[in-house]
Structure to design on (272 residues):
């Protein structure tokens, strides 16, 4: 981020941040703040809601209004904020563990309600903060501290889940593709209804170390190679698809959001 963006959004004296060298969370935060600046999201009109985890620490560094909530429940708190004051921009930051593992139920229902929030889920394929345990997005066969010989479970596709549950906007980016990521965030933050931006990101300390990517740059090269456009992905044959994932915009709809529906029903009940 530029010096000016940093000064505008980061708390004085917050550096150095707690994240390990090579962690993708700083790049994600920088892109989010660039999107905030371009959209004029300010301390007056924006609330950042986080859960618990390395990514969930982000609100500690920001001058925006923030709510640091419990692990897995950030979307429930955010729903309350938005339902109470629909004028606020509510942005919810969660890791894959927070957002779709322990918090899977809240995630499904926030998307189903199509409540006007933007969820930015950083998917580093494991629980970073607590020592690299497997989460619901850990790829099958991958090694983590709780699947030392390989993960016997299948991984969850966060974007497909959001789409199936009814989200208006769904996109996936990576920290390698920073410019595109900022633009996807900007679009998601501008849309009404539930928006999900999944950010595939390196955790070299745990996921990388356990999966032959000890050096951060190896993880970035992995994102560069495996994150492909819809068109490129469609050209791959089935066995080739293994490990590749689509990046870019996946869903963009305009179904009425929760607050709009609520106001319609309230007006009907009041006889107006
Ligand atoms: C109810 C509850 N269960 C478990 C924990 C312990 N815990 C804190 S952070 C965390 C993992 C966070 O992983 P993730 O959400 O993927 O974010 P990351 O640290 O990878 O950024 C866990 C299990 C907790 N704080 N509260
Ligand atoms: S443990 Fe992983 S997710 Fe947490 S700060 Fe370190 S690299 Fe980032």
């Amino acid at each position: 981020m530029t010096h000016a963006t940093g000064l505008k959004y980061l708390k004085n004296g917050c550096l150095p941040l707690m994240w390990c060298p090579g962690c993708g969370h700083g790049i994600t935060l920088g892109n989010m703040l660039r999107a905030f600046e371009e959209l004029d999201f300010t301390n007056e009109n924006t609330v950042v809601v986080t859960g618990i985890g390395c990514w969930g620490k982000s609100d500690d560094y920001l001058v925006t209004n923030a709510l640091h909530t419990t692990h897995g429940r950030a979307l429930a708190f955010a729903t309350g904020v938005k339902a109470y004051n629909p004028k606020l921009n509510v942005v919810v930051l969660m890791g894959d563990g927070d957002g779709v593992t322990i918090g899977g139920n809240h995630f499904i229902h926030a998307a189903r309600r199509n409540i006007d929030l933007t969820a930015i889920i950083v998917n580093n394929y494991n629980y970073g903060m607590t020592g690299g345990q497997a989460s619901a997005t850990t790829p099958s066969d991958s090694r983590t501290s709780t699947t030392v010989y390989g993960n016997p479970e299948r991984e969850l596709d966060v974007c497909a889940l959001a789409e199936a549950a009814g989200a208006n906007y769904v996109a996936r980016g990576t920290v390698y593709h920073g410019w595109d990521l900022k633009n996807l965030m900007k679009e998601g933050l501008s849309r009404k209804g539930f928006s999900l931006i999944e950010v595939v990101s390196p955790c070299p300390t745990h996921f990388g170390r356990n999966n032959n990517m000890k050096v951060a740059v190896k993880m970035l090269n992995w994102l560069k190679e495996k994150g492909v456009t819809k068109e490129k992905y469609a050209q791959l044959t089935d066995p080739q698809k293994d490990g590749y994932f689509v990046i870019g915009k996946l869903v963009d709809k305009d179904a009425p959001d929760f607050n709009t529906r609520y106001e319609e029903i309230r007006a009907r009940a009041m006889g107006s």
About this structure: The chain has a mean pLDDT of 96. Residues 3-269 form a domain with the Rossmann fold fold (CATH 3.40.50.970).
